Amino acid sequence: MGEDHASIHQCLTANKPSNMVMDDAILNNGRPTVIGRVSRTLPVIPSHLLSFDSRNNQLALAALLQIEAPLQQAISRFGASRIAVVIGTSTSGISTGEQAYEEKLKTGEFPADFDYRKQELGNCSDFIAAYLGLTGINYSISTACSSSGRVFLTAQRLLNSGLADAVIVGGVDSVCRLTLNGFNGLEALSNQLCRPFDQNRNGINIGEAASLMLLSKETRKIALLGAGDSSDAHHISAPHPEGNGAYQAMQKALLAANLTTDDIGYINAHGTATNLNDSMESKAIHRLFGDSVPVSSTKPLTGHTLGAASATEAAIAWHILNYQLPLPKQNCEQKAPDIEITLVEQERHLGNKAIMSNSFAFGGNNITLIFGYVHE
């Protein structure tokens, strides 16, 4: 969507993704697919942290630099041992590992800077802590596509338990061949821009992203009002057809936020554009909300950023709330007959209500987050 606020807002309001590109070389079978690839030149990892040098950590650093000033203020106030880091990811530095193995196939040797630890799931949270000189709790969560939503729930627990005074949360995932070929093996990839909730939807686009936030108990204009999770374990890769786990996660988030369905002004859906996901999510939302709340999926603008999806969409929610942007439109060519919910098709605004954001993952790992204004 872009790195600066103006680019992000242009993408959200014009509904024109500039970085969703066709790639016909990344899949083993040569089939073309659309990818959401970050096009900017990424920052260089500092020389004293070269053991962390990977595209994934470069993406993390690009996001980190945008909030470095408030992070340094928090460090000065709370101390380096009282700020935790919890990051969601599913790919970590696998893309860098793939490049290293390609080099070994050509030359017989791994590159001199190859370090297997770059592929470990905890590498990104370790990098962020090392870059900022933090000595408190840090770890990563990997529950597939709900990974960076669960970090918010974890952060709440760390803050409420007194184990941390502030928590850096977010998600970072980079495009890699392993993930793309895996989804292609599941016959889940689309060869065109994905079309959530459309009658002709035919699969997902994979993307990459980094999104970071700083959470604390200090009062701010916009807050995480509630979070709800569930683990229905219906199937290793398919969601429950009636959306039972999705329904439970949304219910729990409303309860945690002490809100009712009337308080929600927009739902950013998981909306992957696969037949099973969109159908079950529509059923779950309709069971809880009826057709009273506008819904859309922003994945045509970003691709499905997997472990970074929840945090990416949390950032979108923050932008809508902070800048009072119009709700992202769905722009279906033809709404599918199995979709009962009200989609955002005309310009609409949130008003003074809250935003619900859904992320549903393999194995039934579901998370719902609610963001809204703090009314004193």
TrEMBL record:
SUPFAM superfamilies: Thiolase-like. CDD domains: KAS_I_II. It comes from the Bacteria. This is Ketosynthase family 3 (KS3) domain-containing protein. Keywords: Transferase. It comes from Vibrio hippocampi. InterPro entries: Beta-ketoacyl_synthase, Ketoacyl_synth_AS, Ketoacyl_synth_C, Ketoacyl_synth_N, PKS_Beta-ketoAc_synthase_dom, Thiolase-like. Residues 1-373 form the Ketosynthase family 3 (KS3) domain. NCBIfam families: PRK09185.1 (NF006618).
